[in-house]
């Protein structure tokens, strides 16, 4: 049986655009684009993981966020259970603390970035 990774992801909004980040070189699935976030540790809730991951990756602390939806995706070696949150307010300035590329996406335009397969339904839902 494939292992399941529980992951949290933030859809971070600024000026009606959302943030996409590229998985950095050396990371699993490097070069693909995704929503910032990461694994939920055994001792934390999804909300605690969201705050920790966004602080570690981007140097921001979510102030106002809400659960949106959960998505499950089966990759070759594992299954990922993604918990998506809309982040409407945060403190701090967005920084690429992992030297990852970042781009603010206008949901009114077509996205040409290669998003991870698990994130594609979310990107499509944001662009309706």
Would you give an account of this structure?
This protein has two helices and seven strands. The protein is of the alpha+beta class and 128 residues long. Strand 1 (4-14) and strand 2 (17-22) form a beta hairpin. The chain is globular, with a radius of gyration of 14 Å. The model has no long low-confidence stretch (mean pLDDT 95).
Low-confidence segments, given as residue ranges, are none
Quick one: how many beta strands? Answer: 7
Which homologous superfamily in CATH is the superfamily?
Answer: Nucleoside Triphosphate Pyrophosphohydrolase
Count of helical regions: 2
CATH hierarchy class name: Alpha Beta
Shape: globular
**Class per helix and strand makeup:** alpha+beta
Distance separating the two termini: 35 Å
Radius of gyration: 14 Å
CATH architecture: Alpha-Beta Complex
| Estimated helix fraction | 10-25%
Binding site for 8-oxo-dGTP: 23, 34-37
Protein name: 8-oxo-dGTP diphosphatase
Pfam family, one: NUDIX_4
Catalytic activity: 8-oxo-GTP + H2O = 8-oxo-GMP + diphosphate + H(+); 8-oxo-dGTP + H2O = 8-oxo-dGMP + diphosphate + H(+)
Summarize the structure.
By secondary structure, the chain is α+β, with helices and mostly antiparallel strands. It is 16% helix and 41% strand.
Topology diagram in text:
Elements: E1 4-14, E2 17-22, E3 33-34, E4 37-39, H1 46-58, E5 61-74, E6 79-91, E7 102-105, H2 120-126
Parallel strand pairs: 1-6
Antiparallel strand pairs: 1-2, 1-4, 2-3, 2-7, 5-6
């Amino acid at each position: 049986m494939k292992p399941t990774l529980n992951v949290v992801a933030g859809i971070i909004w600024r000026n009606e655009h959302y943030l996409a980040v590229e998985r950095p070189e050396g990371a699993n699935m490097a070069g693909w684009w995704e929503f910032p976030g990461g694994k939920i540790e055994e001792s934390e809730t999804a909300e605690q993981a969201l705050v920790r991951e966004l602080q570690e990756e981007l140097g921001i602390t979510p102030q106002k966020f809400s659960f949106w939806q959960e998505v499950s995706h089966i990759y070759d070696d594992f299954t990922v259970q993604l918990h998506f949150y809309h982040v409407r307010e945060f403190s701090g300035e967005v920084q690429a603390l992992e030297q990852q590329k970042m781009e603010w996406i206008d949901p009114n335009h077509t996205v040409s970035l290669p998003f991870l397969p698990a994130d594609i339904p979310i990107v499509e839902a944001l662009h309706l």
